[in-house]
Amino acid sequence: MSAPILDLHSLPAMPATLLRAAIPFGKSRGRATLPALTLRAHGCRASPVLLERYRAACGFDADGFLPLTYPQVLATPLHLQLLGQPDFPYSVLGTVHVRNRIQQHRRLPDTAALTVACRFDGQREVPAGHEFDIETRVEAQETGELLWQAVSTMLRRHADRKDKDGARKAPPPEDTRFTSSRPAPWNIPADTGRRYARASGDFNPIHLTAVTAKPFGFPRAIAHGMWTLARCVAELGEAAQADALQLDCDFKKPLFLPSRVTFQTAREPAGVAFRVLSEEGKPHLVGRLG
Predict the structure, then answer these.
(1) How far apart are CA 11 and CA 224, in angstroms?
(2) I want to staple 225 with a disulfide (CB 3.0 to 4.6 A). Which of 42, 83, 171, 251 is the partner?
């Protein structure tokens, strides 16, 4: 039996959706069932004002097409509405975005009318806690052609594993792909989270200021993971402007604001690997575009 589909004629409003998702409806002590529901919004278009802000915040040039990472911004209100369902078993606060896979089949024009759908797509237990996936599909509204799809992997950590994992974890081996890479230093200003929030609508308090981040255990605001990924894609230039592309990334370590980081790339036979390193040489993000 297929999962029910809830059709919407517009994307949910971000402030109210973010607030509802933050309310802890319930918590799971074991493997819990995710809601079997697909949310689908019709007539979605990029706001020219918000798109201009997004390009400015992430470093993209205007070329008539949506940046590779932008459809995820359009889908974020649907993700939050899924996470805010009364029968969603976990508290959204403390849920961490750990991986993302994007597959673009054809570039999306700035003015395209789109249908955006998302649903939960499985979960698994891992040493750190429970992972679950959110699948997103973006189609041309008139033809139904699949243009873009993504899987966002989220983690709910075991409450009693955080300190133990940190104490036992050995440093990862050096990634030899980047041995001959020419490093590019980035200075990331303190207002990066606020600028990205004004473009994306994601005003999660952990990204805004030190004052709003501290109640959630962060000494300073941290950059949105999808901002860091988008900034990398913008830096890759023409390599990210083809029609058919696959983008994979692992979010490794919070990027505190402000920060100085290093961006590196490594050519591969069928694409390019990239990463963002802290001043201490620890990865914030590792990805691949091909």
Answers:
(1) 21
(2) 251
175 occurs within a structural domain: no
In a domain, 176, yes or no: no
Q: What is the CATH number of the domain that holds 202?
A: 3.10.129.10
Q: Is residue 199 part of a domain?
A: yes
Using DSSP's 3-state secondary structure scheme, residue 195 falls into helix
**What is the CA 30 to chain-centroid distance, rounded?**
26
Q: 3-state DSSP call for residue 242?
A: coil
The C-alpha atoms of residue 283 and residue 288 are separated, in whole angstroms, by: 14
Please report the pLDDT score of residue 164 as a whole number: 45
Paired tokens of 187: 């200075």
| Domain of residue 121, residue span | 5-168+181-289
Whose structure tokens read 């961006």? Answer: 263
Q: What are the backbone dihedrals phi and psi of residue 19, each rounded to the nearest 5 degrees, phi first?
A: -65, -45
Q: What are the two backbone dihedrals, phi and then psi, of residue 71, each rounded to the nearest 5 degrees?
A: -55, -25
Task: Give alpha helix (H) positions in 237-276.
Answer: none
Predicted pLDDT of residue 181: 87
Structure tokens at 153: 């992997």
Kindly provide the b/e burial profile for residues 168-181, where b requires at least 16 CB atoms within 10 angstroms of the residue's own CB. eeeeeeeeebbeeb
Main-chain phi, psi angles of 151, to 5 degrees: -125, 120
Position 92 scores a pLDDT of 79
Listed in sequence order, the residues at least 6 apart from 25 whose beta carbon sits closer than 8 Å to its beta carbon are: 84, 86, 87, 88, 91
What total number of domains does the chain contain?
1
Per the domain annotation, does 88 fall within a domain? yes
The residues of the chain scoring below 50 in pLDDT are 1, 29, 163-166
